[in-house]
Here is the input.
Amino acid sequence: MQNNKTSKQNNWGHLFYIAVNGYKNESLLVVDAIGACLSAAIIGGLFLPVIIETGIPQSKLLLLAVFALSIALVGWAAWFFGVTVKSRLRIVICLNVGYCLVTIFSLATQRGTMTVLSWLYFPTEILVIVLLVGLEMRYLMRLSEAGAG
Here is the structure.
């Protein structure tokens, strides 16, 4: 039987544990960038070419896919090129909030044509992003209190 430390290191929850507890400054950015890549892949790869019907116009899906891809690129670039942690988190938090607002607006304007899958996928995505933004803001406040960069 594995000990708790080993089993903790072998699951995705460990990334969030590390990020929240500050063991590695870049963990939240990596988790965020991976999530944004996944969103861009799902929206751009499955929904946009109508492999899976959503009831949302392709123009709005393209906007969401490009927005998600830009969040991923900003997250990866900030992580690779080493802007200060506070700056990186502020940028990514603003982009995530913007993505959620654009998504909510898109859902509100298309609510009559959306499929069940759209009603399941997009609100779930927003919930995950809001939770991640909460972690990012908590970590940012920790950095501010500690006077770290």
User: Anything to note?
Assistant: The first helix runs from residue 4 to 9. Residues 4-10 have pLDDT under 50 and may be disordered. Residues 20 and 139 are 6 Å apart (CA to CA).
